[in-house]
Specification:
5-stranded antiparallel beta sheet; 24% strand; 7 strands; alpha+beta; 4 helices; 195 residues; rod-shaped
Length: 195
């Protein structure tokens, strides 16, 4: 019986099959193509990722600047000029609150920063004071020529406080880059004005 079993078995023969060799060659070339495709796709993904990250950073800075302008104008609206000592000190204090509230987006090392604080009467440009901090310079003026920080839409007769904050942003995605201007503007009625 043992002899029958052993004679019934078939030994595997190595038969040359040409399609096996062709399939093996094709798998090797597909591996190379997959590697090239992966390199191209990963490069595109890295460009998109860098663009998303820098856009997110710039968007966060813009939100910080807008919030800082609102916070500074609210502070200025309730901060009496007499408490500061002089109108120029009042303007500087409001500008300092804006810079501090911007959480680093308007730091002194930022060359493109602009902080403008103005206080005046409604649409009448005759009586107002304004301070502008651009870069490291501090310019204070109460002249009619310097005007408001931006167009004043407050009704005449109300004393208003304006704060405008500005700096350059940066969006980079290897193949392109942008430098948008980030701006925050706020106006509020001055509540601590003398009656």
């Amino acid at each position: 019986m043992k002899a029958l079993l052993s004679s019934g078995r078939h030994e595997r023969r190595s038969v040359e099959r040409p399609w096996v060799r062709a399939a093996a060659r094709q798998v090797g070339s597909e591996r190379g193509a997959a590697l090239v495709e992966m390199a191209v796709v990963s490069l595109l993904l890295m460009v998109m990722l860098l663009g998303i990250v820098t856009f997110g950073i710039t968007h966060h800075q813009n939100i910080s600047i807008e919030g800082a302008a609102r916070e500074a104008v609210r502070f200025g609206a309730t901060y009496a000029v007499e408490d500061a000592g002089s109108l120029e000190e009042w303007l500087r204090d409001v500008a300092q609150v804006a810079e501090n509230a911007a959480t680093g987006a308007l730091s002194e090392g930022e060359p493109s920063r602009l902080v403008c604080v103005a206080q005046g009467f409604g649409s009448d440009p005759g009586e107002f004071s304004r301070i502008t901090v651009a870069g490291m310079q501090l310019i204070a003026s109460a002249s009619e020529e310097s005007g408001w920080c931006f167009e004043n839409t407050a009704p005449g007769g109300d004393t208003v406080v304006q704060v405008q904050l500005q700096r350059d942003g940066w969006i980079e995605a290897i193949v392109f880059s942008m430098k948008p201007t980030l701006t925050g503007e706020a106006t509020n009625r001055f509540e601590r004005a003398k009656p």
